[in-house]
Amino acid sequence: MESAIKQKPAFLPDPLAPVCKMLQACIQCGTCTASCVNSFAMDQTPRRLWRMVIMGQKDEVFRSKTFALCSSCYYCTLRCPRGLPLTEAMAALKQIAAKEKIASCKSGTLFYTSFLESVRCHGRVSEMEFMTHYFIRMKNPVAPFKYTSLGMRLLSKGKIAIPLTKKKKGPGSLKALFRKVAELEQLS
Length: 188
Prior knowledge:
Blueprint: H1 17-22, H2 31-35, H3 46-54, H4 58-63, H5 66-69, H6 75-79, H7 86-99, H8 106-122, H9 127-138, H10 143-146, H11 148-156, H12 174-187
């Protein structure tokens, strides 16, 4: 009877541990926050986010939008007096959120996945197809209407086009690139 009951593992690894290791030498100087071009839009400053990571406050970290707003400009990494890989730490938080399927990060993960599928399929982004797939995956029928005015402006300025015929463009040399990325992701 006991074998039929699945037992939970006694120890679950902390997903923040690798990021915490990257930040061990952080002295909380605030240079990362002062360097960040997106800090005005973040709900937590980068410095405060690093402190939450070091303190193991997983729920608070993933409730924050700070790491999702990182544009990977590398200013914080370049200016950090301790030489910490801060941009890599932000990227690692994004990867953890995607792997753990954190609900607050779902929209960003779906956007990224839809974007990459369009590039993988066409060798470039097919905007209309990409956005269609993104909105379908969001499973929110009202979501596209929030972007209607933006879409109309982009159409009127010729930034996106409605494809009248389906052009078959192969991914060309990108196929090998995507295969290599998949291999590297398997290793980490």
